[in-house]
Specification:
Blueprint: H1 21-31, E1 38-43, H2 49-62, E2 67-71, H3 99-113, E3 119-124, H4 131-142, E4 146-153, H5 160-167, E5 172-175, H6 181-192, H7 198-208, H8 212-224, E6 228-231, E7 234-237, H9 245-255, H10 260-272, E8 275-276, H11 277-284, H12 286-294, E9 298-303, E10 306-311, H13 314-322, H14 326-342, H15 350-362, H16 367-379, H17 383-394, H18 400-412, H19 416-433, H20 435-451, H21 456-469, H22 473-489, H23 493-503, H24 509-525, H25 529-545, H26 556-569, H27 572-585, H28 592-608, H29 612-628, H30 632-648, H31 652-662, H32 677-685, H33 689-706, H34 709-721, H35 729-738, H36 743-755, H37 759-772, H38 775-791, H39 795-809, H40 818-821, H41 831-841, H42 846-853, H43 857-871, H44 879-890
Parallel strand pairs: 1-4, 1-5, 2-3, 3-4
Antiparallel strand pairs: 6-7, 8-10, 9-10
Helix pairs in contact: 1-2, 3-4, 4-5, 6-7, 7-8, 9-13, 10-12, 10-13, 10-14, 11-12, 14-15, 15-16, 16-17, 16-18, 17-18, 18-19, 18-20, 19-20, 20-21, 20-22, 21-22, 22-23, 22-24, 23-24, 24-25, 24-26, 25-26, 26-27, 26-28, 27-28, 28-29, 28-30, 29-30, 30-31, 30-32, 31-32, 32-33, 33-34, 34-35, 34-36, ...
Length: about 900
């Protein structure tokens, strides 16, 4: 089944070499430089030095050079000629001859047996080369008989005779760094054969820090334990990363040999990380920290006025903790908590650190401390921590505040039914104890009923019951604003705006933020998208300032509203940049729906920009996130978009499967009309255009009744795209007058020009869509313009717009829509015309072409004018592209 995990792929012994193109290119240049006698690769362990050297050796072999390799080891470094013995003439090493004799005989062998230049000799781990081998190598390199390729681990000391080679600029040295965040995506995709979810790729990079060896072992460990799974064509982590035994041994070896006192310092840091430098110095001693620092195990960063110490690699702490005795870990945790408390727990995060340490060590902590820690974790949107602290506090007593904290955390994590049970009990207690808490509990409970349990009427009723009984004016105001927010998200944006008008302006920062959460998306939906987009800036800034965030949507929701509003306005580039920046900045500890909605937003940006393949990849990720976190309602929106992307790619099976799955989910009132796009486009890809138009018209009527003006416009425009522009043009013109931004106006212009078969108008619309970044719509409009010119008999204009449409469509990732399906008929070139056009496209003047083809210059120019007319171009500069497009079409 499409949604199930699949068996792990067989990982190759060597991963693809990526991100090293420049280094390989530099090697090939160095190899043919007569002044260069070697190429030495420096870098930390696991960076891929040997892999790069292997590629260099293969490149040398491909150039016909004689190649050989030798590996230095700890065992060979104390054996004279231990590294070179396998490469020496038989018996020479055993004779223990003097170096002069050895070098002389080796020279004779190399001169007679090596062809095509000096022997290309690869020495792995050259810092382990024994002194005798190092001397022989140095002399052979200096004499020009060996081109040395070597790897050297950072921090290791080379034999002096080898080190002097690049000191004298005889050997080129490069320093290899770990793969950066972007480069890691490539080997993952190549090895796993499918896209990797961006956050999963980010987690793998963070854990490996771009170390290819570590990355491979992390992927292998995650696959073996079923933590890295492929669902709907996307790989993602379904659990925590785990290390393999091999990786454990590699890192343990790196951490070993530091002595008992330094090992104790490693233990302390693994529990306390990140720790203040002065604190660690007082605990474990300055000398031990300096020893660890010299070995490259620590990283010290200045943060404000403090110096903080971390492990140099995030996996070091995990390995140290894994091998630590349980009682040692318990002692260090409690000492950590005690030390913070002794110093007054002055820093903001201190309650969280104390609570975490005491829970990890003893399983319990002071309930007041746990509530403070839960509130702080809530401020940071770490709802897993909120739930943990809240449940630990509830062991002592379930108060309304504790119930609110737990209930909101469960709501944010998609545990809808349990959240309602906890919040209902907390609400019962709050009626007696606290109206302020009651308001916040009702806010979360009503949203939970709406989003998670599809009980829209119950959500409104719960809010109104509390509103009728509440005595506090501020609380009543907040509940009315919450009602407006509910109305916005149950598909009634006009009612929400009417209620906000009735409420009027509000003064309290929390109330103003709630008003923005209700009003800005309603404004965008009803056509005032530019107003909504601009209003987000102040709402976001104000929301981030006030400390009381509980029972409030996160400030990121404001930015999501801005993405939505920008898209509705047609400001696709801005929306795409913002969605990408938000996705990259969102931590994995964020509420599950955050990355789900952001993946959907990135997919919607791609879809509107005419990139259906990219859109399908993002929608697939959003789909998996919605499934795994029980977000059934949003999954309807995601599946509809996924079906649309699949249909635009001509994937009828994918579109049908998404629509069939969508039909199994209860209706979601939020953006209900747009959930019909997928069903309509699934019919398109099946060839039922009349059925698709009926679905779109019905959805547009629904949008009109609810006030979703921009959705109505998009639905009607798709009716125009599918062949009935005259049926929708009048309403689109009305909507263009009601909606802000360029998108709806361009929809209306397109329908108007298409209904009247106005070729010039369609060509103008194509360029307007292209300027907005809606490339697929631009390609379709250009194709329609070409058809209109062709019907009018203007072959040259038809050909030019056909070329323009093809160029735009080429950027649309294989999109196959009805408007692109009708080709523009271009009169074929004669053989003579093609010969002349090809030469002219290369820049040859008419006189040279005439001489080459034994024609007059006038005949050549006449043929060129015919070519220009047939291809719709106006100059020689445009010929090359037009001929290329013509050849592509012929294929």
């Amino acid at each position: 089944m499409a949604g199930t995990a699949v068996s792990e792929p067989a990982l190759p012994l060597q991963w693809p070499l990526v991100g090293r193109h420049d280094e390989v290119e530099l090697f090939t240049v160095t190899l043919v430089d007569p002044r260069a006698h070697g190429f030495v690769i420096h870098g930390p362990a696991g960076v891929g030095k040997t892999r790069l050297a292997d590629q260099c050796l293969a490149a040398a072999d491909g150039q016909g050079r004689t190649v050989a390799r030798a590996t230095a080891t700890e065992g060979s470094r104390n054996v004279p000629l231990g590294v070179l013995a396998p490469l020496l003439p038989a018996g020479l090493a055993a004779q223990r001859s003097d170096l002069v004799t050895i070098v002389s005989e080796v020279r004779d062998v190399l001169r007679t047996q090596v062809q095509g230049g000096p022997l290309v000799l690869f020495v792995d781990d050259a810092h382990l080369v024994d002194a005798t081998s190092a001397t022989v190598l140095s002399q052979l390199v200096d004499s020009g008989l060996v081109f040395l390729v070597a790897t050297v681990r950072d921090g290791e000391v080379l034999p002096q005779v080898l080190d002097s080679l690049w000191q004298r600029a005889r050997v080129r040295r490069i320093d290899l760094a770990h793969l950066d965040r972007v480069a890691v995506d490539t080997p993952l995709h190549l090895v796993l054969h499918d896209p990797v979810e961006a956050t999963t790729s980010g987690q793998l990079w963070t854990a490996s820090q771009g170390n290819v060896l570590f990355l491979r072992e992390l992927v292998l460990g995650a696959l073996q334990r079923g933590q890295l799974v492929r669902r709907h064509g996307v790989w993602r982590l379904a659990g925590a990363l785990v290390t393999t035994q091999r990786l454990h041994e590699l890192i343990a070896a790196r951490l070993s040999g530091v002595g008992d006192e330094a090992s104790e310092a490693l233990d302390v840091l693994s529990i306390w990380e990140p720790a203040g430098l002065s604190t660690l110095e007082a605990e474990v001693g300055r000398n031990q920290l300096e020893l660890l620092d010299r070995r490259g195990l620590l990283e010290v960063r200045t943060e404000g006025r403090r110096e903080r110490v971390r492990f140099a690699h995030p996996l070091y702490g995990e390995i140290v903790r894994a091998r630590m005795p349980a009682l040692t870990r318990r002692r260090l945790l409690l000492e950590h908590a005690d030390r913070i408390e002794v110093h007054g727990a002055r820093r903001r995060e201190d309650p969280i650190r104390i609570a975490t340490s005491r829970l990890d060590a003893a399983g319990s902590a002071d309930p007041e401390l746990l509530v403070r820690a839960a509130r702080l974790a809530r401020y940071g949107h770490d709802f897993a921590q909120v739930e943990r602290f809240g449940r630990a506090a509830a062991v002592h007593e379930l108060t309304p505040e504790v119930g609110l904290l737990i209930g909101e955390a469960l709501h944010e994590r998609g545990a809808w039914t349990e959240a309602d049970e906890v919040l209902t009990e907390a609400e019962r207690m709050a009626w007696i104890e606290s109206e302020e808490l009651l308001v916040q509990i009702v806010e979360i409970r009503s949203r939970n009923l709406m989003w998670g349990l599809f009980r829209d009427d119950d959500a409104l009723d719960a809010n109104r019951v509390a509103l009728e009984r509440i005595g506090d004016a501020a609380g009543a105001e907040e509940l009315r604003l919450n009602e407006a927010m509910l109305l916005t998200h149950i598909g009634r944006p006009l009612d929400a705006l009417a209620l906000l008008d009735e409420i009027g302006e509000v003064e309290r920062p929390r109330a103003r933020s709630l008003r923005a959460f209700a009003g800005l998306p309603a404004l965008a939906a009803t056509g005032r998208c530019a107003t909504a987009a601009e209003g987000v800036a102040s709402a976001f800034a104000e929301h981030a300032e006030f400390p009381e965030q509980i029972a409030m949507p996160g400030e990121g929701v404001h930015l999501m509203t801005r993405v939505y509003a920008l898209l509705e306005c047609g400001r696709l580039g801005e929306a795409t940049e913002l969605a990408a920046a938000m996705y990259d900045a969102t931590p994995v500890t964020a509420p599950p729906d955050a990355l789900m909605w952001l993946a959907h937003a990135r997919g919607r940006c791609a879809l509107l920009r005419g990139q259906p393949a990219s859109a399908r990849r993002w929608f697939a990720e959003a789909r998996v996130r919605s499934e795994e976190n029980n977000h059934a309602g949003p999954r309807r929106i995601i599946l509809s978009a996924l079906a649309t992307a699949a249909a635009e790619l001509g994937d009828d099976a994918g579109a049908t499967a998404a629509v069939d799955e969508l039909a199994q989910i209860p209706p979601l009132a939020f953006q209900r009309p747009e959930q019909e796009f997928g069903r309509a486009w699934a019919l398109v890809v099946e060839g039922d255009l009349p059925g698709a138009r009926r679905v779109l018209r019905a959805a547009a009527d629904l949008a009109a009744s609810a006030g979703y003006r921009t959705s109505e416009a998009a639905l009607l425009h798709d009716v125009a795209r599918l062949g009935e522009p005259a049926a929708v043009v009048d309403r689109l013109v009305e909507l263009a007058a009601e909606c802000e931004g360029e998108f709806v106006g361009t929809y209306a212009a397109h329908a108007s020009a298409a209904a009247r078969h106005e070729a010039d108008g369609l060509a103008d619309v194509a360029e307007r869509f292209a300027e907005l970044g809606a490339v697929l719509l631009a390609a379709e409009a250009a194709a329609e313009a070409a058809q209109a010119h062709q019907r009018a008999g203007d072959r040259r204009a038809a050909a030019a717009l056909g070329v323009r449409s093809a160029a735009l469509a080429a950027a649309c990732e294989g999109a196959r829509t009805p408007a692109l399906a009708v080709p523009v008929t271009v009169v074929p070139l004669t053989g003579r015309e093609r010969d002349i056009a090809t030469l002219a496209a290369r820049g040859e003047p008419s006189k040279a072409i005439a001489e080459r083809l034994f024609l007059s210059v006038r005949t050549v120019n006449n043929h060129l004018q015919n070519v220009y007319s047939k291809l719709g171009v106006g100059s020689r500069r445009e010929l090359a592209a037009a001929l290329a497009d013509l050849d592509t079409g012929d294929e």
